[in-house]
């Protein structure tokens, strides 16, 4: 049994900031059904959602640039500095959305403000993922890294839950007219203020020992040339992310819209289903992360790949016919349990693939590219299939992405026992010691 201690201060400090980052990121999607009409002229509801989904995707296409710039910054200036910068950018973007003028007041200028805000969010999140993944991984001793790094998705999901919880409160305390008029601005104000608070919290974090060792080496850090020396690992990150990110956004950000538009559930019921399913999903992450510390990362990834490839079509088809809260919740949970095999450990797997001097950039840029191509476009692709009356085509698309990633999971090396620091390298891991 591994007796290594988990550095809870570092885990909590990094996670709380990540929570606010992803609250701001996801709240755009969860409140889109209320503000879509505010920024575009009259038209059918699906067309308005397509417009807001397109702007949502714009943020993802900014993530590769954010991954490059902020990943480079994290490798050169440190994980703590990058974490502080990303949350500052996110606070500014949330504030922009909160004060954006409507179409009635300023025409398409309001939509332009939304685009600028999403570009800033994409820049921020593009670096946040890698800075958070590397910080949580490096700050934790070998043998507990899977458990500790799983809190990245705990905090990401908690951020979404806070947004959904606030949405439920507003739905029950404000009229639909008020929400459509001005109520949708409230969560963005909350996000801007919370991010400002977390800025001060992150300033008190300590830099990781692993990064400190790299500073002593005095070598160049975070360059594209150094990343190209690890082309195989970079391509591996893109491929293993492909199926996971599409499945994740399908069962999280798109789920509420799908239950409302396709299954015909009331918005309030669809939101409650998402909230309950995501809460249980959040609680599963540390359990799966801890399991990966015992049995390895690959078994969980392979389980996800098989489950997502074979289960997406029947699950989404059944969800489209769900007629009540109970059935929709059970089916949603099945999908999220499958996705847990990816979400709980994807951060630590990617961080363990690269050496310290290029770890943040190596995680950030390939991951951001994969998200721009597959994660950010998932909702738009789903709505496109629906608008053309071939909604089931999207289910097969998700399955195909999972199949590609499954091939990678089956052929990649195990990363659980990788030593990140000199002290780790001098001692065998628990799994190695057990075999001696």
Commentary on this structure:
- The chain is mainly α and 436 residues long.
- It has one domain: Up-down Bundle (Growth Hormone, Chain: A), CATH 1.20.1250.
- Helix content is 79%, strand content 0%.
- The protein is built from 23 helices and no strands.
- The chain has helices spanning 8-30, 32-35, 45-77, 79-99, 103-106, 109-138, 145-149, 151-173, 176-181, 186-202, 209-217, 224-228, 231-251, 253-261, 267-295, 298-320, 325-343, 346-353, 359-375, 378-387, 392-411, 422-425, 430-435.
- The radius of gyration is 21 Å and the shape is globular.
- The chain crosses the membrane at residues 21-40, 52-70, 82-100, 106-130, 151-170, 182-201, 234-251, 271-288, 300-319, 325-349, 361-382, 394-412.
- Keywords: Cell membrane, Membrane, Symport, Transmembrane, Transmembrane helix, Transport.
- This is MFS transporter.
- It is a multi-pass membrane protein.
């Amino acid at each position: 049994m591994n007796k290594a201690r988990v550095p809870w201060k570092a885990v909590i400090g990094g996670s709380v900031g990540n929570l606010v980052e992803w609250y701001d990121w996801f709240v755009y999607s969860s409140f889109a059904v209320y503000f879509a009409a505010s920024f575009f002229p009259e038209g059918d509801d699906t067309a308005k959602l397509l417009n807001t989904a397109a702007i949502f995707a714009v943020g993802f296409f900014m993530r590769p640039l954010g991954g490059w710039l902020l990943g480079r910054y994290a490798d050169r200036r440190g994980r703590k500095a990058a974490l502080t910068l990303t949350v500052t950018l996110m606070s500014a973007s949330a504030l922009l959305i909160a004060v954006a003028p409507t179409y009635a007041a300023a025409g398409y200028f309001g939509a332009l403000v939304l685009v600028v805000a999403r570009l800033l969010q994409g820049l921020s999140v593009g670096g946040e993922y890698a800075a958070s993944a590397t910080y949580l991984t490096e700050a934790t001793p070998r043998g507990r890294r899977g458990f500790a790094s799983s809190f990245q998705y705990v905090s990401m999901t908690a951020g979404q839950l806070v947004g959904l919880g606030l949405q439920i409160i507003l739905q029950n305390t404000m009229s639909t007219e008020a929400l459509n008029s001005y109520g949708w601005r409230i969560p963005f104000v909350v996000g801007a203020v919370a991010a400002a608070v977390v800025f001060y919290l992150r300033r008190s974090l300590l830099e990781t020992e692993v990064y400190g060792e790299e500073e002593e080496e005095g070598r160049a850090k975070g360059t594209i040339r150094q990343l190209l020396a690890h082309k195989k690992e970079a391509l591996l990150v893109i491929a293993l992310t492909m199926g996971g990110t599409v499945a994740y956004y399908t069962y999280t950000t798109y789920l509420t819209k799908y239950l409302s538009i396709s299954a015909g559930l009331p918005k309030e019921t669809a939101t409650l289903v998402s909230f309950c399913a995501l809460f249980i999903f959040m609680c599963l992450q540390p359990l799966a992360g801890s399991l990966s510390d015992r049995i390895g990362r690959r078994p969980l990834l392979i389980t996800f790949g098989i489950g997502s490839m074979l289960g997406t079509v029947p699950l989404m088809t059944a969800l489209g016919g769900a007629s009540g809260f109970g059935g929709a919740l059970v089916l949603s949970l099945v999908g999220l349990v499958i996705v847990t095999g990816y979400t709980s450990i994807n951060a630590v797997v990617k961080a363990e693939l690269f050496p310290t001097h290029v770890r943040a950039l190596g995680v950030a840029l390939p991951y951001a590219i994969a998200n721009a191509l597959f994660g950010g476009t998932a909702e738009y692709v789903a709505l496109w299939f629906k608008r053309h009356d071939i909604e089931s085509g999207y289910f097969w698309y998700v399955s195909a992405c999972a199949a590609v990633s499954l091939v990678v999971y089956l052929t990649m090396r195990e990363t659980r026992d990788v030593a990140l620091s000199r002290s780790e390298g001098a001692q065998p891991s628990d799994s190695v010691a057990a075999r001696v």
